[in-house]
Write the structure tokens for this entry.
Amino acid sequence: MVWCSFFVNAYQIDCPQNIKAKEEVENRPNGWEVSDDINSLTISFSSMIVYHGKPSRKVSLKPAKGWVEGKKHELIWEVDFKADVEPYYVSCSYNGSRIELIKKIDLSMKSCWADYFEDEQGKKGTLTCSTSEAKDLH
């Protein structure tokens, strides 16, 4: 009998490239109407931020340059949960909006790095996280 065991040593979080949002007027002044053409709009991805704890606490981490798994990266964050009591989150921001989509980073990860790409549909962002520690950060 052969036993196999698998564990996650790296994974990716892809920010949605475009999202649909709706603007709404909560307190319309008397005598005013809301134009029909602003009900729904598509907003495109802008950037990623890594937070220590829920993003609403506003404790964003500053990225560093360095190496992970033998490759150089320009935007690296250390996310070693064992050294801290709060989980880490990635936040995806969108152009022309205050909307941020957030996702918790797996507690077993020790470092994450961002990669940005551009295609015919716009900008894309991927956060790759690893159980390996970052080296030579500056």
Notes: DSSP finds no helices and nine strands in the chain. The CA atoms of residues 50 and 126 lie 12 Å apart.
